[in-house]
Amino acid sequence: MMKGWKISILICGLLAATVVFNTAFAQSGDNTLTKKEKKQGWQLLFDGKTTDGWHSFNKPELGKAWDVDNGTLHLGKIKGKDDGGDATTREVFGDFELKLDWKISLNGNSGVMFLVQEGPQFERPYHTGPEMQVLDNNGHPDAKIIKHRAGDLYDLITSSPENVKPAGEWNSISIRLKDAHLDFWQNGSKVMSTTLWDDNWNKLVAGSKFKNMPDFAKFKSGHIVLQDHGNEVWYKNIKIRKL
Question: String of b and e for 205-236 (b: at least 16 CB within 10 Å)?
Fold first, then answer.
């Protein structure tokens, strides 16, 4: 009888150790690159420990509302006017492939912009950079507007299929720009595809809120920007490779 109890205790102990090991392994896998990714030219934009490589748009440092929270680049509550700001990469990128995971707060709004230009002549990052929308589709008022929902090329093209997860859950996205061809993926599915800078693109822009922004999407390289829309948001596994 005692022998049976010992075997049961041993099995339970092994199972518990396996769960702990798997959990630790999953957590340690965040914000890292595999040997294959390194060989392919991927680089981390966020190491999970510091905010190195990021600053607020048109400012030398990153606002205090951005911090590292349990391995995520986190925008928390903004107390002062200089606490937030749109998190902007130090580097600029032309043709690229970007991957990251995001999680939005209840009724929250954010976005991932690219080809963004800095300088006193550019007041906001969206004046130059297109955006993949990050949104709580179930709660934020913007979700009522077509082309403003999560995964959309903001105010330009609606994403399909609509496969975003609800507030508080992680979503994985990818943005790929190569030879003017732009693709968005969300949670494993391609949700948007278009070509920049051709006649059709110019018509899309002319019919959007960007029509009176002369520098919108005019540049072939620029910064990656994570939008401060005043809502709590988390990002991790932010990695990019130049194409």
Answer: beebebeebeebbeeebbbbbbbbbebbbbbb
Distance set, CA 26 to CA 20, 23, 43, 170 (Å):
10, 5, 20, 14
Cβ-proximal residues to 176 (8 Å cutoff; 6+ apart), any chain:
96, 97, 98, 182, 183, 185, 243
Same domain, yes or no: 12 and 103: no
Q: Identify whether residues 6 and 54 lie together within a single domain.
A: no
- What pLDDT, in 10s, does the model give residues 116-132? 999 999 999 999 999 99
CATH code of the domain containing 50 = 2.60.120.560
CB 88 within 8 A of CB 122: no
Residues in the chain: 243
Residue 225 and residue 55: Cα distance in Å, rounded? 10
What domain range includes position 136? Answer: 33-242
- pTM (2 decimals)? 0.88
